Amino acid sequence: MKVNVHAVNFNVDRKLIGYVQERLDKLEKYYDKVVNSDVFFKLENTSDKENKIAEIKIIVPGDEFIVKKQCKTFEEAVELAADSMERLLMRRKEKVRTYS
């Protein structure tokens, strides 16, 4: 699956891009009809340590899923968002199975 990584107002390290690609590739075993996936990284301007936001957007035929998580590190945010996305994709797969 091709993953597009977008960083708002900063540059992303290659290790982080590799981690995101590897983690989102695991989502294909839950739902294999993913058309497109985008990951957006943002930094919130607060003094709080949990200021890193990862937003995952996955497009499947007929629907679009967006999950947004905020944590201390981008890796942790991606992990939590990917876990939520797994549940959404499994629900979508069950829904498609029952209607077909």
From TrEMBL:
Q: Which Pfam families match?
A: Ribosomal_S30AE (PF02482)
Which InterPro entries does this chain map to?
A: RHF-like (IPR036567), RHF/RaiA (IPR003489)
Which SUPFAM superfamilies does the entry link to?
Answer: Ribosome binding protein Y (YfiA homologue) (SSF69754)
Listed Gene3D superfamilies: Ribosome hibernation promotion factor-like (3.30.160.100)
Record-given protein name: Ribosome-associated translation inhibitor RaiA
Organism in which the protein naturally occurs? Flavobacterium cerinum
